[in-house]
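Section 4.2 – Deliverable D4.2 (structural model, holo form)

The reporting period included a commitment to supply a predicted holo structure for the target in complex with flavin-adenine dinucleotide. Inputs used:
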Amino acid sequence: MAHKVEIREIKPLGETVFQYEVEKPKGFDFRPGQATEVSIAKDGMEDEKRPFTFTSLPSWEHLQFTIKSYPDHDGVTRKLMELRAGDHLLIRDPWGTIEYKGKGVFIAGGAGMTPFLSILRDLQSRNALAGHTLFFANKRERDIFDKEELEAMQGLDVHHVLSKEDKRPYLHGRIDKAFLKDHVEDFSQKFYVCGPDEMVEDVNAALKSLGADPDGLVFEE
Ligand SMILES: Cc1cc2nc3c(=O)[nH]c(=O)nc-3n(C[C@H](O)[C@H](O)[C@H](O)COP(=O)(O)OP(=O)(O)OC[C@H]3O[C@@H](n4cnc5c(N)ncnc54)[C@H](O)[C@@H]3O)c2cc1C
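Output (structure tokens):
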């Protein structure tokens, strides 16, 4: 069932990443890490559905989406950038993407951070973050979103990895087998991987060759 919901606020988190605070339909529920099909409630756009993850917690009074737009591509995310508070979206039932299954390592590429944002916020709200690690891969420092919040999460070991900039205090390069061997000690813990197709494929293969059993989710890019 589609719900028509009002956008309350749109906040830029970077050049192309925006946070949408959206009205929550009465009784609407989801689990941290879940996504829904979203479309823009305007003529001709209603059926152009794209998957986006809830970055809010189920207990919040509003819903939140954190969306990376592709301004060079004539798609839905470009149109989402043009919306204003007071415009409406259509959202559908939540469906499972990545589910938290226990303590471990989160490896996110760009917008692939979104399911982890909700999962990490949930762990934080339960004082259960200790022993978790996050590798957040981006091209450049300016692409990192929610940096301050992530770094302030008590107990979470946060590492930013930049592929196109080499500057302190960030790690530089790609997350491959050599990188994982250097930065991870225990491959028997849980691994959660989310990002663009190629990254998820490469990181999952590297993790498997190191004896891990990763949960991966592809975000097309
Ligand atoms: C389960 C799930 C949850 C997701 N959650 C989020 C989220 O919370 N936040 C978020 O930001 N993203 C999320 N995504 C990714 C998001 O769904 C896509 O970025 C979005 O669908 C793109 O829509 P679009 O209409 O702009 O592009 P589309 O028209 O759907 O096209 C996307 C495809 O176009 C291609 N493309 C991109 N740029 C160009 C270009 N310039 N020229 C030609 N082709 C190009 C790419 O190959 C890309 O795969 C999620 C994806 C999945 C599968």
